[in-house]
Amino acid sequence: MSPVPTNESNSKHPPRSGILAGGNWIVDYVKLIDIFPQQDALASILSESSSNGGGAYNVLVDLAQLGAPFPLSGAGLVGDDDNGRAIVEDCRRRGISTDALGVTREAATSYTDVMSVAGTGRRTFFHRRGANAMLDSHHFDFDGTTAKIFHLAYLLLLDGLDAPHDTYGTVAAEVLQRAQAAGMQTSIDVVSEDSERFARIVLPALRHVNFAFLNEFEAARCTGLELRRGDELDTSKLKTAAQQLLQTGVRDWIIIHFPEGAYAVGPKGEYWQGSVQLPESQIAGAVGAGDAFAAGALFALHEACGIEDALRYGVCAAAASLSDTTASGGVRSLDECLQIGERHGYRTPL
Fold it and tell me: Which residue ranges make up each domain of the chain?
C-alpha cells in the first residue's frame, strides 16, 4: 500500500513524530442505570466507576493502550485539585507527556456525570465545564514540539477556543492555523451538542484541518442536511454532506463515523468501512467509542498506512471500546482490536 504524503518532506521543518492532543481533560463518573427515566421519575444505579474523559485525554489513553510506537503528549488545562493531580499521574504512568498541560487555581478540573443505560449502551452526559472553559490560544505554544499531528477536541465544548476571532473566525481556527504553520498536520473532533452553533464554530476550523472527525449527527448539524430517516442512514445525503464539509478547505480527509461504519472523502477519493458485527451481549456502553475510533484512525494516519487502514483501525478500536462502560477500559493493543474485527466480521459497507 502506498503511504500517504506527509509534511515531513517539507525541508522548512524537522522530521516529526508523535501526536499532541489538546482540548478537553475530564474525569468521567460513569453510572450504569437500568433505564433512563422521564423527568421526576426514578432509575436505579446498577454500578458506578470513574475514568478518563474528554477528547484529548481519551484519545491519548486509547493510543497508549493501542501500543502507539510514537511519542504522546497532551495540552490543555486542569484544576489545582485532586482530579487534576490524578490526571497528571495517570498520564505519567502511561508514558504521556504533560509538559504542556497547564494547572489553574481559578477553576476545578472538568468532570462529567455519565448515565449509561444497561442493555442498550445509550448514554446521557451532565457536564461541569470547569477549567476547560478557560483554555485559550496562549495555552498553546508549538515552537518546541516535534509532534507530527496536533489533535484538538472537542470543539463546541471549549468556551475560550469556541469564541470569535476577528481574523480566523474562531480562536480554535487560529490555534489550528498556528499548528499547521509550525509544520504539523491537524485534526479535530466535535461534541454532539444539541444546538445551532455548529456552522459558526466548526466550519471556520475546517479551513485549517487535515483530518476532521464527526459522527452523522454532527455532520448533519454542520450542513443542515437530515442524514437519518428514522433508523435508516441516507447515504446519498451523507456523501453530499461530506463533500460540502470537504469544500470548506479540509486538506486531506473528512471522516464521518456512525453505528453502521465509517465514510471518508478527500481529494484522492472516497472510502467506506463497515463496523464490526459485535454481538449485543458484548456491548457494555458506548462512552468513548467515538474517541476510540479517532485514536485508531490517527494511529494509522500517523504511520502513513492509508485511509483504508485508518477506517479499519478506527472501527476495531471502537468495537473494543464498547466492551466496557468507561471511555477507554475496553481498548486493547492494536492487534487485539483488529482480531475483534476478524473474529466477528464487518458489516457490508453502505
Answer: 17-344
Cell numbers given for 125: 452526559
Q: What is the largest CA-CA distance in the chain?
A: 63
Determine the Cα–Cα distance for residues 200 and 187; give it in Å rounded to an integer: 18
C-alpha 319/C-alpha 291 separation (Å) is 11
Tell me how far apart the alpha carbons of residues 254 and 235 are, in angstroms, rounded to a whole number: 15
* pLDDT one-digit tens code per residue, 305-328: 999 999 999 999 999 999 998 899
What is this structure's pTM? 0.92
Q: What does the DSSP assignment read for 252-317?
A: SEEEEEETTEEEEEETTEEEEEEPB---GGG----TTHHHHHHHHHHHHHHTT--HHHHHHHHHHH
Superfamily of domain 17-344: Ribokinase (3.40.1190.20)
CA distance 235 to 220: 12
Tell me the C-alpha distance between 20 and 237, whole Å: 33
Residue 328 neighbours by CB distance under 10 Å = 27
Distance, in Å, from the CA atom of 296 to the CA atom of 19, rounded to the nearest integer, reads: 12
